[in-house]
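Issue 218. Parser rejects a valid record. Input:
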Amino acid sequence: MPLALFGGSFNPPHVGHLAVAEACAEAAGLDRVLWMPAATPPHKRADPALASAPTRLRMVEAAIAGNERFQASDLEIVRGDVSYTVDTLRALAAQGHRDLALIVGGDSLAGFPRWREPEAIVELARPVVYRRPGDGVDLGALPRWLASAVVSVGGPLLQLSSTDIRRRIADGQTVRYLVPDAVREIADAEGLYRRVRRR
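Output the parser choked on:
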């Protein structure tokens, strides 16, 4: 599996994302991990805390700088509108990518059968699933077509989320060592995620 899609809102990207991508790349023998910020995540269409797509792409580029296996992509941003994984995988296949993987967090796997065209996704890309203790996923309870395709990956346990990062910034708390310095500098310079003070 030389190329894996790692999609998400990345609002902002943090060290947990980096650890997951690196662990999956190592365990599944991935040559490249394509980090793809969603133009408009389907579940966050009206989220006022969502930074602009170009800003999230810049933060991803800053976060992954220096890792030759990681690459940022603006494919979904250029396409615009709501970003669906199946559409992105089809676009990558049309570009000639045949051996594809899809990095998915274990906590997202239970809802995978409700994604748009989930069986088509599995036909296009093998799910590489980052498992964490307590993610609540029982592979035996998943549809056979999904459970049989999953590559499970373990790795460091980091209880960290972009929601936590945004909350800390809004509360004026430090996020040093939770996000790469370059990401923190972008967020600081652009005033991202700060709570608006009302008079």
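Fixed in the parser; the record now loads. DSSP finds nine helices and six strands in the chain.
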